[in-house]
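In this supplementary section we document a worked example of the pipeline. Step one takes a protein sequence of length 502 as its only input; no multiple sequence alignment statistics are reported here. Step two produces a three-dimensional model, which step three serialises into structure tokens for compact storage. The input and output of this example are shown verbatim.
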Amino acid sequence: MSKSRSNFVCQSCGAVTNRWQGKCDACGAWNSIQEEQAATGIGAGTARKPPPKGRQIAFQSLAATGQEPPRTPIGIAELDRVTGGGLVPGSVILLGGEPGIGKSTLLIQACAKLADAGGRVAYISGEEATAQVRMRAERLGLSGAPVRLAAATNVEDIAGTLGAERFDLVVIDSIQTMWTETIDAAPGTVSQVRGAAQALIRYAKNHDACVILVGHVTKDGQIAGPRVVEHMVDAVMSFDGDAGHHFRILRAIKNRFGPTDEIGVFEMTGKGLSEVGNPSAFFLSGRDASAAGTSVFAGMEGTRPLLVEVQALVSPTALGTPRRAVVGWDQNRLAMVIAVLETHAGVRLGQYDVYLNVAGGMRIVEPAADLAAAAALVSSITGKILPVDAVFFGEIGLSGSIRPVVHGGARMKEAAKLGFDAAVAPPGSGDESAGLRVERTDHIADVVARIAALPGGRVAQRRAEPEERRGDGPKRVTDARRGPARAPRDTDYDGEVEGAPF
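The serialised model returned by step three reads:
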């Protein structure tokens, strides 16, 4: 009898070593390596045994036209949008999210909606008892839906039970609680998660059933378990939101049967999750348009245009190193925008604390938000109130130039639909203005000059002060288009500025 062999596997990245150590050399995580028995299933046989002879596979032409894969609409418009139009038979979806964010609530509502439409649906819980799931369904008013409910964690038992019938949708909550008898390891370990996912994917492909796997997330927002699971499944979705807000965002990170980076917006209510048909109006609700330091960014999330409010606060610092705080945006991009404003537009922010916030808890990842963030910063430091009917979008380069972005026409159409009249955008960002007054600008200095020319603000107050009380002399600024010999401009915009207001 051969001696059983054990490996030491990192629970964060799945790296395998032959001994235990405190730090994983692959990902750098501490105390994440655990001892596991070597797999005894497929691929674990002795090397002295000759490999079986495989059967010949048939090739097909690349030019062969195939039909669009059939889809089963769930009935929840926001969920169908993210999946690409509905569920594809034989596909596997991995849904991740923080604890308590509403993953189980969303899936129970989806199961009930599909079951009421005549679909055969099974919900298998590995974390809660069936009585707890029934209580949640009763609270949501879904107790009458014909959903098959079970509580189990053994993958072989689950696959054997599901294989006896035909199901359109199977929900496994969650994959970290599942375990298979072919692997000698505790549930939740890297080996068990990988083996259980492989068995459930095999069931989905053999029986043309759509399987949704619920996955836990780590403290840094990544789905727990080996990253190979994300490569094995057909779609990876993230369900996140801010605990201080009622809205939740379902985001497609990977989708073999639909667009990626698509989002669906939901609102958490006492009766469960309700769809938000117009997310732009939802994020702009409660906007204080009469305050300086706010701008409206016309962004894109997948194929959906989305308007969000960008708020900035620039205040004098009492610290040796000014503070830079960002919520909902990349802190590195904020540092870049501040550097460009100081170098190419004469806006000195080195002695100020800078706070930037995306209202509503939304997180922006596209670089087209550079112009909206810069406009909010300049509005805050000058006290000038930006036009309430204008939206901003454009990417700022290190030379101060404003680069065009994609889907300019869709952004403007969304702004026009919500009652906006103007858009500040770079040249080349689409010719469809949707009836908006488009202010084309190709350099950040022009935008700063236009904001400084707006009426009111702290500029007019400082202009009335004597020169000796200001303590700031005129500074020369450089312009990448006009060379270093640009006309002098006061950093506080006390003198005349070029350009006209928006």
